[in-house]
Amino acid sequence: MKKLFCLSLLVVLFSCKENKTTKNKAKAPEEKEILTELYGSWVGEFIVKERDKSKEEKEMYSNKINIVIKKITENKVIGQSIVAGNNRPLEGKMTKTGNKVHFILKEPGDDKNDGVFDFEIEDNTLMKGIWVANNPKKEVSERSFELTKKDFKYDPDVMLSEGEMYVDYLNPKTQKNEEEGEEYSEDTYRIASPAVHTINSSTQKLDESEVKNLKKLDLEILRNTIYARHGLTFKAKKVRQFFDRVDWYIPISSDVSSELTSTEQQNIVLLKRFEKYAEDNYDTFGR
Q1: Angstrom distance (rounded) from CA 277 to CA 270
Q2: Of 72, 68, 91, 92, nearest in space to 80 by CA
Q3: Can you give the pLDDT at residue 236?
Q4: Exposed (0-12), middle (13-18) or buried (19+): which is 40, by Cβ within 10 Å?
Q5: Which residue of 1, 103, 122, 167 has the fewest CB atoms within a 10 Å radius of its CB?
């Protein structure tokens, strides 16, 4: 009986101690969040260092990157990098000196393309820094960036600029010509028609008569403009070439399927169906 009493007492004491520990843990205050005015998306070009550029890349524009700052405390910063179809969590620290805030944020390191972002934000207006790959042997081991703060908001009415010509530079077709008895080769390119500036594939419910005579490139761009409005980060360079230079486009997510409206879903199905059989005209176009 005495042994049973002692055992019961030990159980009660252990339980009280455990409850007290749990209670103390629950009371531990969370770190205070600071510099919340820096939270949000910072967007701009992700520029390859000159020494890493191939001839082809030198003639192309840079990828668009979005660095999202989600939480800042004295001891930890949490964020996210979104670029070229990759969506990676960031974690690191910051130090503040005067009107400058310096960050070192690391991607997890479990992907071959991961690296470290080292940047400063001055006067809460400009984020400027570099990214260095974890793998120094990577083809592109370092990039620089100057980003400005932009808020993402889905807007079904935004359109591609009528002042821009959309040319598929990545898939040229070499054409042989003859002039005054001499043969020469010339690269020709797919060029989108004005339809990509006038047809809104997010707000208009398209029918077959509107799309049946469009070029294959027109159909591809109209379909991907839907995804661009929702902030999809495109993996394929052949798609990024059209949207990374569009001012309103902000890559925010690697999957926007749940955000599509019923009109957009129906238009995507229609456009993809016609893409299978559509053809393109190739033309010369100087860079």
Answers
A1: 12
A2: 68
A3: 96
A4: middle
A5: 1
Q: How far is CA 70 from CA 38, 73, 84, 92, 244, in A?
A: 9, 11, 20, 12, 23
Give yes or no for a contact between 219 and 271, defined as CB atoms under 8 angstroms apart.
yes
Q: Average pLDDT per run of 10 along the chain, which is 287 residues long?
A: 49 53 62 97 92 53 93 98 97 96 98 97 96 93 97 97 92 83 87 96 97 97 98 97 96 98 98 96 72
- Give me the helices (H) in the chain, please: 2-27, 55-58, 195-198, 208-211, 216-229, 237-243, 262-275
| pLDDT score recorded for residue 190 | 96
Instruction: Name which of 221, 193, 200 is nearest 264 in CA terms.
Output: 200
Sheet holding 282-283, edge to edge: 167-179, 182-191, 282-283
**DSSP letters along 41-57, please?**
EEEEEEEEPGGG--HHH
Q: What is the DSSP letter of 20?
A: H
| CA-only gyration radius of the chain, Å | 27
Task: Give dist(CA 239, CA 247) in Å, integer.
Answer: 16
Measured from the Cβ of residue 199, the count of other Cβ atoms closer than 10 Å reads 20
Instruction: Supply the DSSP string of 165-203, one letter for each residue.
Output: --EEEEEEEEEEEEETTEEEEEEEEEE--THHHH--TTT
Determine the longest span between alpha carbons in the chain, in angstroms: 117
Q: Which of 127, 94, 87 is nearest to 108 (CA)?
A: 87
Tokens 């209670």 correspond to 23
Torsion sign, CA atoms 6, 10, 15, 17: positive
Q: Is residue 141 a contact partner of residue 133, using CB atoms and an 8 Å limit?
A: yes
CA dist 99 and 124 (Å) reads 8
